[in-house]
Amino acid sequence: FHNENKLLKADHLERGKQFFHKHGSKSIFLARFVGPLRAIVPFVAGISGMKKNKFLFWNIISAFLWSTSHLLLGYFFGNAFTVIEVWSTRVGYAIGVAVLFLVLIYIIRFITVKHGRQIAEFIRSVSTSIGNAISSNPDVQKLVKRHSTFFAFIKTRTNRKSFFGLPFTLIVIGFGYVLSLFFGIIQDVLTSDVIVSADLRIANLLEYLRSPEFTKVFLWITLLGKWQIVIGSAIIVSLILWLWKKRDNIMYLWLALVANGIFSYLGKLLIHRDRPLTPVYLENSFSFPSGHAMVAVIFYGFLAYILIRHIKSWKTKVNIFFACLFVILAIGFSRLYLGVHFLSDVWGGYLLGFLILTTVMALYEWRQWSKGSVEHEHVVVTKNIKLATAGLVFVGVIFYIGFASQYKPPIAVSAQAVIQNIEGGISTYFSDHKIPKYSETLIGNPQEPLGFIFLAKDDTVLTQSFEKAGWSSADRVSIKSIAKIAEAAVLRRQYLNAPMTPSFWNAVVNDFGFEKPTQSNSVDERHHIRIWKTNLRQDGLTVYVATASLDTAIKWLVTHRINPDIDTEKLFVKDSLQSANTLEGTNEIQFVDHILGQNFSGDDFFTNGKLYILKLN
């Protein structure tokens, strides 16, 4: 063991000795699961004179458990891939993106905690060196003399010793950038069909994914932005700040909350945007901007600012920042999940909240700077202050739990669709009434054309017809269906009703999904049909529209590649229903022109543009 040795350093031996002396005989067992110490601790045990029988006892037990755990780990990851295959849908893609986002946030937090200061110091050092090199250049010096007034202004703007130097410059730049984003999102909401289309489809997708279990969770989360909780929490925070003699913060906290109320009200009044049509519960105000998103940034952001400003530990500062970020994002997403806001409402709320928070923080910093001291009041932290603080925090938690437990918002009732009767040809009716003939992407671009129109008495007849033909109805996404996916993967069972990729038509998600395995009986290949229930009626029968596709392979681990020949798949669906004697009548019409296109994931498809009108028994 030498420090020059790349594998066996003296430090490793020292760590092994410390580990052995700390844990004794059981260190043989524990070290088996600690990579760097796995080989060193037995060596230390030998030179320390550990008894042979005791060593063999711990070594055999640890070897058995170590090998078993690794076999189970391999089995788990092998079946994890099966899980991905079973449920590789656009929902899976969304979940994957969310998980990757959380992992990315964790990595950024980890790097910031470990190396944030060194990275910042390195950047500052490099910037200073570059600046010195540029300023010492003779040509640059001549330029500075020629335009002395301009460069004097730049020097003043970058002066770190004055609040109105570099700090104020950075605040103004950041404020201006966020302000431009805010006005940009207002313009998009008022004029952009793409933003409005995406908002509508995201709202409908989240409504499709909604489940009672997750709805309860997000109702509790959204209450963190409810005005009763915020005001109650602000009172408690004010009392704590008073105890800790941080009384300057109290005025600015309430200033930020008052500004939040004023600008939230004015924004809703000016934009006058209606809320989504499928909320969990009713809200009586307009939609843009999201008041919950605003107050999340302002209130929780200001709390994080106070804590970060007065806490010395770098790691704690970083953890507070990311905890605040998580709370803000969770509140914003809860508004989307509960269907009370569009995505652009939440984004606009974040931006406006950030503008208010930045302004209040700048005013506070300017006041502190003008006093010439950052800390004016020093408090001796006594046991009574700590107990009082803990008591106030406990009261806040009890208040939140009590309010959330008793909170009963007015539940929204879905509006009944107005029934329209089709007279004449279906294709002509669709064209005359501008009813979409294509499925759509998230932003409303056309995908595959509709391949079917089903005429059925009701939903039961539709479902029974497909089940009789050997199709399985796809379950909705829920905790129960996710548990079934995991169970099917671990126990190597089939899950014929696994949730499938939702798709859009007329801005809404499909109401029904049916799937059928191919002859290969593999999760890679499956027949899919997605069906939307319309408000149209013909001859007293409900009109359903549908698209069909054949999955042929796993793509990107989270979705499937489709067979480009969707006409053959349409024929397969029709023949399967016909073979099961579920059809009363069939008709094929030219619905759209011949088309060669791509779906949302870039898969090519082609079709002759014909559509089957199938009347179910």
UniProtKB/TrEMBL annotation:
Protein name, entry field: Phosphatidic acid phosphatase type 2/haloperoxidase domain-containing protein
Sequence ranges assigned to domain Phosphatidic acid phosphatase type 2/haloperoxidase in this UniProt record: 249-361
InterPro entries: DedA-like, LssY-like-C_dom, PAP2/HPO, PAP2/HPO_sf, VTT_dom
Assigned protein family: Belongs to the DedA family.
Location of this chain's protein in the cell: Cell membrane
Membrane topology, from the record: Multi-pass membrane protein
Keywords tagged on the record: Cell membrane, Membrane, Transmembrane, Transmembrane helix
A GO CC term assigned to this protein in UniProt: plasma membrane
UniProt xrefs under Pfam families: LssY_C, PAP2, VTT_dom
Main location: membrane
Keyword flag Nucleus: no
Residues that span the membrane, as ranges: 29-48, 55-78, 90-108, 163-186, 217-244, 251-271, 291-308, 320-340, 346-364, 385-403
